[in-house]
Amino acid sequence: MKQLRYVCEVKVCGLDELSSSDRELVEAARMASFSSYSPYSGFAVGAAVRLSGGAVVTGSNQENVAYPSGLCAERTALFSASVQYPDCAIEVLALAGRTSEGFTEHPCTPCGACRQVLAECERRQGGRTIRLLLCGGSEVYQVEEGAKALLPLQFDF
Q1: Which of 37, 109, 130, 135 sits in a 20 to 30 Å window from 143, CA-based?
Q2: Are 139 and 14 in contact (CB under 8 A)?
Q3: Backbone phi, then psi, for 37, in 5-degree steps?
Q4: What is the tens place of the pLDDT at every residue in 32-88?
């Protein structure tokens, strides 16, 4: 019998410990959460991706009464970046969640579908890893290994 063990390494830091470009990306994700349409869950999420050419593309979750017809912030940003900048690799994705009380205390993490889409984006760009900045009210989880760290047994064929 063979046994596999997967470990996800996460660096936890404060916003003030991020580089200026990462802080700007986190701020873009937070601002994107204000364009969320989330009347059913009350959970607004914003995402921002920085591309290899330096462009930043944002997205927010968009709910629909005909659940599950809505779309998560991560997929909105990733798909938009792919359409607008098809020849640019996605380098970093920042994610921030917010309720009526304010930004979530703990970092917001991607759902399973978004993790799989991240994996596909990495595959589309030749295996180049997408660094993740998962933001909470006062701390940020930095995931350097991208989708494989969050979804070690991702679907592939």
Answers
A1: 37
A2: yes
A3: -115, 95
A4: 999 999 999 999 999 999 999 999 999 999 999 998 899 999 999 999 999 999 999
pTM greater than 0.90: yes
d(CA 92, CA 5): 26
Q: Examine the residue annotation and report whether 74 is marked as an active-site residue of this protein.
A: yes
In 3D, which of 87, 90, 88 has the Cα closest to residue 59?
90
- Is the N-terminal amide bond of 68 cis, ω within 30° of 0? yes
Which of these, 109, 112, 151, lies nearest to 132 by C-alpha position?
109
Of 74, 91, 122, 144, which residue is the catalytic one?
74
Structure tokens given for 4: 């596999």
Cα(104)–Cα(123) distance, integer angstroms? 31
Backbone angles phi, psi at 134, to 5 degrees: -100, 115
